[in-house]
Design a protein that fits this description.
This protein has a single domain, classed as Gcn5-related N-acetyltransferase (GNAT) (Aminopeptidase). The chain is built from five helices and seven strands. The protein has a seven-stranded mixed sheet. Helix 4 links the parallel strand 4 and strand 5. Helix 1 crosses helix 3. The longest helix has 15 residues. The protein is globular and about 40 Å long.
């Protein structure tokens, strides 16, 4: 199983959308309503990704993991969107891998590519938000050195309001983590 990680380009939007929908439908069943998950639309997600990947210089970027059969995972990252974040804080917005490709190191590889890029871009800290009710993702990030900073917030997912928790990762040993 050979996988190459590369920067996402506009032609990847449909594949990214397919990965996102399939990942959500597998990972969030029982947490997010079935109606929401079953109603997820690849075409609508493609349009969102097209806007994100071609929408201008806001600093948001994405990597894809590509295997012989096409894109099997992606990660998105860039400047932190939190109101309390300084310009030196980046954010890991998402990592998703197709269910059949989980536990092959693809998520770790995508994570490493994003963290390395955030470091090279001068960010001293990174943050991410994850559903509180997603122990697998929380454990994944904790194994990679992320720490929950105690912040919890509501997050609307369709008709539901679910709790998300914020994790932080120092990107520079010499920089204090600004919160």
């Amino acid at each position: 199983m050979s996988v190459v990680v590369r920067e996402a380009v506009a032609k990847d939007v449909d594949a990214i959308a397919r990965v996102q929908v399939a990942s959500w439908q597998a990972a969030y069943r029982g947490v997010v309503s079935d109606a929401y998950l079953d109603g997820m639309d690849v075409a609508e997600r493609s349009a969102r990704w097209r806007d994100r990947l071609t929408g201008g210089p806001d600093g948001r970027r994405a990597f894809v993991a590509e295997g012989d059969s096409g894109v099997v995972g992606f990660a998105a990252f860039g400047p932190c969107r939190d109101a309390d974040a300084s310009v030196r804080v980046g954010e890991l917005y998402a990592i998703y891998v197709l269910p059949g490709w989980l536990r092959h190191g693809i998520g770790r590889t995508l994570h490493a590519a994003c963290v390395d890029d955030l470091r090279r871009s001068g960010f001293g800290e990174a943050r991410l938000w994850v559903l509180e009710a997603n122990p697998a993702a929380r454990s994944f990030y904790e194994r990679l050195g992320w720490t929950w900073d105690g912040t919890t917030a509501p997050h609307d997912v369709g008709e539901q309001e679910l709790a998300v928790v914020r994790y932080c990762l120092a990107l520079r040993d010499s920089d204090p983590v600004a919160r």
